[in-house]
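Session log. Operator J.P. requested a structure for one protein chain; no other inputs attached. Running the standard single-chain path with token output.
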Amino acid sequence: MRPVSDSIKTEEHEGSGHPADHAAFAQVARGYYTPIVVLFTATLIISNICATKGVEFLGDKSVSLGPLQILPIATDGAFFLFPLAYILGDVLSEVYGFRATRRAVYYGFAALLLTVACFAIAIRLPAAGFYENQEAFRTVIGTTPRLVVAGLAGYFVGQLLNSATLVLIKERTKEKYLWARLIGSTVIGEFADTLIFCSIAAAAIGIDTWEQFVNYVIIGFLWKTLCEIIVMPITYRVIALLKKHEPSYG
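Structure written below.
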């Protein structure tokens, strides 16, 4: 006769669906959603660090079109990363839908909050006697509260609008006119993101006139939309591969 304790252990394992001689573990969800969300979140965090560097192209040129300053092109060090975040958002929305994309946006929002909190703590920790880069460290990863709020608000609203717009268009077009969904969602999402960020952060980034404000919003919006169009063939290919290899698509 088996000991009572052995019988209890066997029954517990049988009830949970796990063999009695193996440890119990939860199953990891299959598919490509998780790695895309990881890349999406990493892009957002890296973008916010790179954005602390000011960048200027063609600084020796001066070209204006009405109130818009075409040259020189003044931007930040994350100018090539923010469009990537929206491209990944498009991929998530097209393949996995609005609810799954909204969950990814929440994850990214939480990760950004954690990043900002950790940076603030690290800056305030007492520097060691041999550490000579405290001010440089503060300059690179330190941000003003207004910039933090502006970045989080712009990202949150812009990404949700981007996803909602793409999904709404897809409900009408089904699998046709992917180009319309990608461009249409980017126009709505990127414009909202840029407008909200600049409206909140204008004073913190040195914008003090309506001309500068309009220039920053329009040039930033046009640049991000242009990036979407340029890389659209790659976006098409990634979406096609995911639709083909995701067992649950359809």
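Operator note: DSSP finds eight helices and four strands in the chain.
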